[in-house]
């Protein structure tokens, strides 16, 4: 079995393609294991299109490192788009089916080490605007998967114990966002990894959307996750666009 390891803004993934669609929860746990596997935040299984009558180029299954299946993954969508393009499974402008819906992506630049990829997420849905917890205000929204967002004034301090409590209570990923001039800094505790990751695409999108709706930033900004990489986020009439570098780390045979 040949797998690729990618990093998209610091969120890392194992990716392979197969025509066989089945549950790969146990495989995800093994491959994502940091000590005994390849090591990743998630597993992406790309299932190429088998007939011409679909209005997308391929389908994917996304698993978190604990084996749970997630509806969507923003950074994973960019890594997977690069993988699909590099392996001639899709054209540079593509669409693919996730549990959350059809995602449009575009590989704007590509070489053997990765490239620049834009992904358009499913339309954001604000679910709650005033969740109070430990004297802090949290917003709940869905940008493909559920997120809680708190606009903070100290991004250096992320209370992981508090994030764990909120994650359990609301079955959501937990983000703190800091307005840094015209741009944003975001940190995310991810469901299914059960820890803070270096970046979360749908989490950055959720944080951006709330900051935009609250009038704190414009409709086109830069967002910096914990990894420090730069992501370009924008909002259009349909949804949130999300662009940044993806890195192909290695390809290996298992
Ligand atoms: N890292 C992803 C989100 C992956 C799914 C998430 N952990 C969940 O279970 O909701 C991203 O970049 O969006």
From TrEMBL:
Substrate binds at residues 11, 64, 74-75, 173, 190-191, 201-202. Its main location: cytoplasm. One of its GO terms (cellular component) is cytosol. Keywords: Amino-acid biosynthesis, Cytoplasm, Isomerase, Lysine biosynthesis. The record marks 147, 190 as: Could be important to modulate the pK values of the two catalytic cysteine residues. It is found in: Cytoplasm. Pathway: Amino-acid biosynthesis; L-lysine biosynthesis via DAP pathway; DL-2,6-diaminopimelate from LL-2,6-diaminopimelate: step 1/1. Pfam families: DAP_epimerase. Homodimer. This is Diaminopimelate epimerase. The lineage of its organism: Bacteria, Pseudomonadati, Campylobacterota, Epsilonproteobacteria, Campylobacterales. The gene is dapF.
